Amino acid sequence: MWIFGYGSLVWRPDFRYINRQEGHVKGFIRRFWQLSEDHRGLPGKPGRVVTLISTGNQSDCVYGVAYEISNVDEVSVRHVLDVREKDGYTIIETNFYPKDVEQKDMTCYTYMAHTENPFWGGDAPLDQIAEQIAHAYGPSGSNHEYLFKLAEAIRTITSVHDEHLFSLDKLVKTILIQDEQK
Ligand code: BEZ
């Protein structure tokens, strides 16, 4: 079984794996449109985390990391996935295209937040999303740490520009510098 991560799993997989491949999935974009009240925010002051948004356009792609899980670990990893589902994500299957051209594309599982889930944040002006991320904290740490680590990890994987991710990275860094000067 392969699992594709495009959020915190890119830089901090929380399960055991036997193989790791950097690459991308097609037909999606990555957006900070899911609210987090349990990891990177709190009830009443949610943070924002990423979800895949299906575009139906095969030239759209999202870079991340696919992890191969051994048969013996499948049950425990499925438990981790179930917890994610409770956070508003649904598991889907999609094709993954490894960066390493020697490797064939493969089917993997990943998660996607649907618009009807209780933690759906949806689209908002980028400066509002940046403000929210800059000032949200939760049990797993600050929301800006999540954003900065993700942007840094994606830059090491690909030179393909992720406009939404990198613009937020820049905006939130500016907000935090301004906060320090207050
Ligand atoms: C991720 O890290 O890729 C991820 C984890 C949970 C839900 C969505 C994405």
From TrEMBL:
Q: What is its EC number?
A: 4.3.2.7
Alphabetically list the UniProt keywords. Answer: Lyase
Briefly, what is this protein's role? Catalyzes the cleavage of glutathione into 5-oxo-L-proline and a Cys-Gly dipeptide. Acts specifically on glutathione, but not on other gamma-glutamyl peptides.
Q: Which family does it belong to?
A: Belongs to the gamma-glutamylcyclotransferase family. ChaC subfamily.
Q: Does the keyword Thylakoid apply?
A: no
Broadest EC class assigned to this enzyme: lyase
The catalysed reaction is: glutathione = L-cysteinylglycine + 5-oxo-L-proline
UniProt keyword annotation of Lyase present: yes
- What name has this protein been given in UniProt? glutathione-specific gamma-glutamylcyclotransferase
Q: Which SUPFAM superfamilies does UniProt cross-reference here?
A: Gamma-glutamyl cyclotransferase-like
InterPro entries linked? ChaC (IPR006840), GGCT-like (IPR013024), GGCT-like_sf (IPR036568)
The record's Gene3D superfamilies line, in alphabetical order, gives: Gamma-glutamyl cyclotransferase-like
Q: Which Pfam families match?
A: ChaC
What species is this protein from? Rotaria magnacalcarata
Q: What is a single molecular function from GO for this protein?
A: glutathione specific gamma-glutamylcyclotransferase activity
Q: GO terms for biological process?
A: glutathione catabolic process
Gene Ontology CC annotation, any one: cytoplasm
